[in-house]
Structures are given as C-alpha cells and as structure tokens.
C-alpha cells in the first residue's frame, strides 16, 4: 500500500507497518508538474493558490496513492481545506499534527494515534528508527562533503537531504544509490576556495536551476536549512521517536529555526543567505524577522510553479553574489 504524505512525518511508523510512504511534494516537483497543476485547476482550484497545494492534490488523485497522511499543524495552512476536498473525492486521509507548544505528551498522543491507525507497536517503530539511523548519518556525511571538503554540489546536498522525507519509498535502494553518489563525490577535486559560500533557508525551491545559477555566478550553496532538518541526522541513535520529532525544527516557531541558522552561518563560514518564499505562502511574512535577525546579507527570492529561474531572478542572484564578492574583498 502506498501512503502519500504532505510533508515530513514519522516515517518510521509507516515503514514499520509495512506500507510505502510517498512524499507528494517530491513527486510534484520532480515529476510532470504541469499535468498535476492542470488537473487541479480543472477541478476548480484557484490560480492564485500556492502551486504546491495544487500539485500535491494532483499527485494524490492521478498517481497510485491508496492513503494520505495530512499534516494539519506545523505545515501549510491550506492543508486542512485540501484534506476536506480529498475526502469529498473518496480519498482516505488520516490526520497528523506537530504540537505547536512542543509538549512531549502531545507528541506521544500524535504518534500513538498514527501507530494505532496502522496497527504497529512502539517496539517495531523503534527498530525501524534504528534501521534508518545509519542511512541518515550517511546523508549527514554527504552534507559534510558539501561544506567541509567542498566536493559535493549544493543541488546534490539538497536532493539527498530532501529525499529523507520518504527515502524514495525504499530505504535499502536509497542507501545503495547514496553510497554510489558518495563514492563519486569523494573522488572529485574540491571546488575553488574563493567561491562565495551561501546558505539556503526556507522551503525547498520550485526554481529548478537555482543551484546551477548560483554556481554559474561564482557562488555555492553549502547549507540547506529545511532540507537538513528533514534528515533528522543530528539525533543520536538512542533518541526516542517522540523527542526526535519534537526536535524537528521545521514545523515549529521561527526562533528555533533562527538559532540553528545562526549556528550554521558561523560553522560553515557563510557569506550570505538566500531566503526562498513560495508565492501565496504565509511563511513569506517571516522574511521581515529573518532579515532583522541575521547579521549577513539576505536575498529573498520568490517562486511559484516548478520552472527555471526567470530573467529577474537571474539578475538578482548575479547582483547579490557580485555584492558579496565586493564585500569579501
């Protein structure tokens, strides 16, 4: 059985239950996004709605998805309405929420509800957590190949980290492909040390060539904030499943995210930050606080449909990196 997820959820529960998780966002962005968008708009979704919402709706309806775990707290504010539409179309949906007060007991209740629904015991979930742990650590190592040894590209870093939401539906195959990628990266010469080092914060981008455009102008993204959070790689093998998802920064308040962002600006010696916002998304308001809180230059870019960067985005990236070069000199 394939279970669609609207964002990162305790995937250990799904794998322990013997079902295959499918991150609907990843299918939308990496697949035939136009097909999914067109389907949703024909169904009546407005044009001035976040493309991701329309995209994941289309994926769930057009692909072989048997069930959906919809995140009602800690992600997109439109998901609740989206769930209502899915249910009206006969789709089976179970709700999951990240408790906004970050209370341990509330997280226990949420994960227990998920385990009860899929008829799986905590011991099996813990076993699966331990099975996924070394995979998460190898993705962490690939991250180090990006910012420590300067051998992996920003896009490779992004892609492997964001894929930890569902491990592409098969952790064993995922690990084998990851090891092949790491072996290739380890054999490369490092990127030039004088490149502008950038951090990327915000939801994963719908601008498909963003990383290429940055590198084309003499920069390199060596920190992907939300994608890194998806890996859960900072946790120890003995961290229990409840604390693991309480420590997951993305669903909670901005201040927790900013604390980690500031740490990584120092650790990775970042020259600047690219803040990506999705059109019509409430998270765009956070840009006001981000620019006030960070002590490095911040470029805010906005995306909508999955597509290559337009002329304006290209020009702004080029100007931003040129400015950072001048500041560095």
TrEMBL record:
Keyword Metal-binding among UniProt keywords: yes
Pfam families documented for this protein: HGD-D
Alphabetic keyword roster: Iron, Iron-sulfur, Metal-binding
MF annotations from Gene Ontology: hydro-lyase activity; iron-sulfur cluster binding
Cofactor requirement: [4Fe-4S] cluster
InterPro entries: FldB/FldC_alpha/beta (IPR010327)
The keyword Iron is annotated on this UniProt entry: yes
Domain of life (superkingdom): Bacteria
Entry similarity comment: Belongs to the FldB/FldC dehydratase alpha/beta subunit family.
Protein name: Benzoyl-CoA reductase/2-hydroxyglutaryl-CoA dehydratase subunit, BcrC/BadD/HgdB
Source organism phylogeny: Bacteria, Bacillati, Bacillota, Clostridia, Peptostreptococcales
